[in-house]
User: What shape does this take?
Amino acid sequence: MSGDAKISAVLETLLAAKLVQQDEQGVGYAKSGMHHELLCPAEAIRAAATVYREAGFFLEMVTCLDLRETARRMRLVYTFNRLGPAERHRLFVDLAEVKPFEPSPNVKSNATPATDPPALPQCAPSISSVYPAADWFEREIFDMFGVQFSEHPNLKRLLLPEDADFHALLRDFGRVEDADQGEGGRGV
Amino acid sequence: MPTRAKAGAVSERQHSKLGDAPLPETYHLNMGPQHPSMHGVLRLVLHLDGERILDVDPVIGYAHRAHEKMAEHRNYLMFLPNTSRVDYLSGMIYNLAYCQAVEKMLEIEVPERAEYIRVICSELNRISSHLLWFGTFLLDIGGITPFLYAFDDREQILEILDRVTGSRLTYCYGRFGGLTEDVDTTFLDQTRAFVKRLRERLPEYHALVTGNVIFRGRCEGVGVIDQHVALAYGVTGPCLRAAGIAFDVRRAEPYGIYDRFEFDIPTEQSGDALARYKVRVAEIEQSLRIIEQAVAQIPDGPIMPDKPKKRFKPAAGELYFAVESARGQFGIYIVSDGSEIPFRIKLRTPSFSNLAAMPAVLPQTTIADTIAIVGSIDVVIPEIDR
Assistant: This one.
């Protein structure tokens, strides 16, 4: 439960339509900065975004967590907020289960990145038709994590070079410092 | 130079709407990445029909330095110097925002005096950022003199902050729990003198620029970001307030001690480049008000907790912390896995979302307007690319 957060009308709509559910692991606003901590299945994210859009929320952030090592999943994180007194809704969208990767990211010596990360690409529905703001956020996630977004109008790399063959924020990518150290490095 | 297949065909032809197949006479033009008014390394791929823009595709990433990746390979303290390099024009605000986010994770109490100094420095930094924008924006659209005025005043701020922090731009002044150095009475005197000085200068700014007929001609009704576009793209900061929405994180989700100060949130209704100009200039005055109150109320006392934390392992979990930077809502999303090293730090930067709205704003304007529009939204490219 989201601590002492007051019941919000948009949340009632979302819960009634069974688009989201409360995140039992939530710790409340004082600790997480999130007024409402929710879970959403990937197939419901576009419908949930539509409810937020109609309620006058803006899309504050979309990002991705590479949890393959611990939870065998990639997780998308969406936050919606009001352009007024803050009411931040955080949605976790867990993608399909994948094989965990082998090398530990914080061990310097075996930071050799897998050339073909297991079980990528992952896919989620794009919400850019609901929130144009999601266009760039989703492109960045595709760029950095290799997650595909279905029905995205223009899913191409955003920050890394167009011809890059890697996704730099994956945990098994290795260290940045390794990037330009010759063979095995991922320098561009 | 691009060439046209049929010169002079523009006036005779019905203009095609966006999304139609390109006419044989249209062409693409790369504006940037090395263009004097593209603020660093922004590249706009303009699809043009003569002088008129049909479509635009902003290309970013030229200043990508992998700050988020670096965060995953160093401990919390080691990431501190990265923060002010994300947006080097309001680095103080970013640096302190990161400190405040970590303080919230670890439940560290910040001494009162440090809170006041943080407010003074943040607002000075906001003014210096707005002054730099003022100067370069007018330079972009052809006015050289205002640039000299603005940089003269901005230099005062840089000297005040340089004296206490040791840096002119990329400040690393914050520490978890407080600040590196205390300020002295000279700092407070200099700050008071600066507030007085800038108050006297602002009427000159207005006389020089605000009523200028050429300036108004370049800005009035140009590049309108209305409330609908702002909401759809998550536009924040002065660009949003110029569209009539009084959203400011300092008021909507107060952090630090901002709830103690009286200040207004300037808004305009028209959402054009002129409105964004007016909002920023009005914000300078409000920042001066905040500084004046903070300088008057600042208490004596320590600037760091008794036992500062240097090495620590935050409990596993997540945190979103937002502040109002000079360009809009800057959010830090930190995920901890319980180790000394952040599992993930996502930086939600305001210019990223503000620039993303350009494909909704630029079409049907002209190349000359592009300069005024991109200038007026005040993008810092390294902050977008991170």
About this structure: Chain A is about 20% helix and 20% strand. The interface with chain B takes residues 27, 31-34, 56, 58-61, 63, 65, 70, 77, 79, 82-86, 88, 90, 105-106, 131-133, 135-136, 144, 157-161, 168-169, 171, 173, 175-177 of chain A (CB under 8 Å). Chain A has a mean pLDDT of 78.
